[in-house]
Fold each of these.
Amino acid sequence: MHKLFNRLFCLPPPCFLGYRAPETGGNMLQLIRYCFNILHRLHIYFKKQPNFDTQMFLYIPFFCSYSLTMKFYAVARGRRTGIFTSWPDAERQVKGFAGARFKSFKTKQEALAFLEDPSYTNSASSTKNIGFAPPKKKSGHRQPADYEYPENAVMVYTDGGAIGNPGPGGYGVVFETGESFSGGFNLTTNNRMELLAVIVALEALEGETRPICLHSDSRYVVNGITKNWAKAWKRRGWKKSDGTPAMNPDLWQRLLDLLPDLDIRFIWVKGHAGNPLNEACDHLANSTARMPGLPDDTGYLKSRKNSA
Amino acid sequence: MHKLFNRLFCLPPPCFLGYRAPETGGNMLQLIRYCFNILHRLHIYFKKQPNFDTQMFLYIPFFCSYSLTMKFYAVARGRRTGIFTSWPDAERQVKGFAGARFKSFKTKQEALAFLEDPSYTNSASSTKNIGFAPPKKKSGHRQPADYEYPENAVMVYTDGGAIGNPGPGGYGVVFETGESFSGGFNLTTNNRMELLAVIVALEALEGETRPICLHSDSRYVVNGITKNWAKAWKRRGWKKSDGTPAMNPDLWQRLLDLLPDLDIRFIWVKGHAGNPLNEACDHLANSTARMPGLPDDTGYLKSRKNSA
RNA sequence: AGACACCUUUUCCG
DNA sequence: CGGAAAAGGTGTCT
């Protein structure tokens, strides 16, 4: 305990880091770095040995982080080439210019490297994270059929989209048998359509006794059910873990009501990855969204009015 | 940007918070509180205005939290009776001892009460959650509020005090979410501290769009705003109605500057009347006032010199 | 910060 | 029509 404290005091206090005269953002960065440094050390210590004489609890989610997010736009081929620090400037050199080559970087060094060799690719991000280290995603591609499909299962694919988001949107549902449903609204969001696609699919399957394999490319929808996000929100009165209101409660409620009587597996599939049935849904949703004379999505309009 | 920095420097640097001699866990808590205060203020600022000259990113979800949970083990019947601060010690007195009576508490007072009367039960949870704690689900009994609290209101409690008045003083601010701020000076007055508590609370809430319910037990502060005393003094050049100078114009000016952008209700609560949040402020203010090495209240010293 | 989805613009190639 | 790249954004969650 005392040893930890002594180590903490080895850090120079903020006033020694030179931001008594705050002229530049760099000083601000040092202030933040100092605070994060202390919290980070405490966090590591508590995780390693959570119970010492004075028990202390410190909760820092892993996605706490800070970084300097200046962007450098390297234009290798354009009206004028070079490095620009704002997108409007860079866009002017590039937009409508045949054969333009450009890319953004977080450091000037990288941008210069790109200018010399336009095949240069991004290096690692310079973000500093405190808290639990993000789980390393080493495995490149997700395996195809590692999933056990039950015998006699009903295969359904769903997709939804909104042009402009928010904007006119549509949903598509395709069964392996070839049956399909679709619909759309003149103003809605992508996630509402993904959700509605699932609802329509399950409503069409009401009374089905065989197991159902429902495929969607939306993490929002799949996790909402498989990780029980939706049930947690409902229990808290449609509030998220941070206390702010969860979105689309009307649709989630409809979906939850459909679940008990069916044997469903929600399966996430990567979008635009060649799955023919997923592509079919996508096409269906898209073409519906582009149709004239679509009705209002009253649920979306209502939620929008409430938040405004 | 500069304004933010000036506000950050109003926080006493860590060396003023008394953890130069880290003998107890309480000092560690203050170190953490200091870091969280700075980060929280930066977070609010960035959220409000994410793009200034030096683009910077800081992500801290508000449910980051920390607390100090020292445990006291009261052994009423065992090999040796008394209070122990670690479970292995307490276990030795109790394990295999016929008819042992023991219980853990969070404060020494409660443990002592249990020793005298083993039927003593835990009082209301005294866990201090300071930081960005999730909103507490306090379903239960609210005091009969004759006041109409708006929906979604931010609840803030403030208190200030000076030992000896004038003398060393401190202020405390507690949000219903558990967040808290505190500070102190080596020579100041009770009203200056009450006033500063309110200022610190509102500065922390800069940019907040929800209605704010600010509770103080100082008639001076509440009436100063609700009955427009302060505005009247300012209009007359900081003179009271009888022509004599109004006190603490520096702080009143700071407070008036904060009002226009916020939707605040000033609510007077009776001090020391059992309101737990008010008590928490009181405690915070008092303990800060008793800390060694507090800085000067330059505003008070100046006004004293002028009048002398 | 990360993840998934949904888009808008520009360019290139079939 | 189909494929690719680059930049900008929103809708949602942890």
Amino acid sequence: MAKKRAYHHGDLRRALLQEAVRIIHTQGVEALTLRAVGEKLGVSRTALYRHFTGKAALLAAVASEGFRMLRLRLVGAWERQGGGRDGLDAMGFAYVHFAVANPSHYRVMFGGFVDDSVDPALAEEGGAAFQALVDALIAQQQQTIVRGDAPVLLAQFIWATVHGIAMLAIDGLLDRRQTDLDALIRFANERIAAGISTQKA
Amino acid sequence: MAKKRAYHHGDLRRALLQEAVRIIHTQGVEALTLRAVGEKLGVSRTALYRHFTGKAALLAAVASEGFRMLRLRLVGAWERQGGGRDGLDAMGFAYVHFAVANPSHYRVMFGGFVDDSVDPALAEEGGAAFQALVDALIAQQQQTIVRGDAPVLLAQFIWATVHGIAMLAIDGLLDRRQTDLDALIRFANERIAAGISTQKA
DNA sequence: ACCTGAACACCGTTCAAGT
DNA sequence: ACCTGAACACCGTTCAAGT
């Protein structure tokens, strides 16, 4: 014990980020104030400025962390199914389920809170998550299951669809009309597969 | 002249809403403060409380107005093409173009700013805009051009896709990767049509 | 009914000062 | 290097008061 610590934390930056994620998850973005974060960590509300340029940078770090988590879910879903058509379907479910399970966090990632320029890691993590989808589609094309369109174009089309479903679900614009969310995801998966397949089925 | 007016406006509510839309369009949501609106209209910053329950209600009215505008664009695009496959394609372009032309306004409509309960007109206008798409799809089904899936399910799938493209475009997550937005919309229109068509082409 | 002006409780950020 | 505490300029909202 009696650990020789500077003022309060060994890694205050990490603690600030974790606490921010926790507050956003449990109480939403509007509850995230520098005062609340500082108080919870037993630290001055201005201590954050030693590790982030401001609140915007903290939010960017939260978003970046979100893209990292999302990518892990996507890759995990793809590999668990051993790729293929089932792998793509699983990625669709994993994507929307992540968003619905972490609505406030997801909104920070896409809600216009963040400025791309404020954190270089953000663009990198976002790009890596997108790349997971591109890679999956390229693998499908090599097996001649999917049409030979530009992989990025294919990926953007699919990304937009799952992103749209996720956003509408979070905003509560689907439940209102007797919708089973999983049924919608399943339908979207089927119709997308039919639309980008090489088969004429 | 010498119009006998109460204090300042004949229709302050309408003026407040218009000014709010204007500020959001030109400077973004974060620039919308009750002080700014009041000052611009030559009215106290608390005058608004006579016509709205608070800032949230003002934003809900802005969102509601946005859905009304969007619906008019969608219906206009559909009718200008005389319906059919071209009509659906035109609706897709009209949808995304509206969002990209009014990014801040669009974000108010979908960014989680509004509480459905705060304004009954909001749910109504949002539902009406969605219904325009449902109606178009039903018309297509009657011509046996589109599969006989549940119209609402079909509409949610398509809505999610254009909504996703719109959001990603607004967030600047597409331009980054050498994308022509219209090319993406065109591609999405084609692949969706292929996915929901009765033809086996 | 409609609007004002002062007051209240918040917020992010700056900055001189402490260790 | 890291953190504090007071101060600053903002914000939405409340409320007694005016017409």
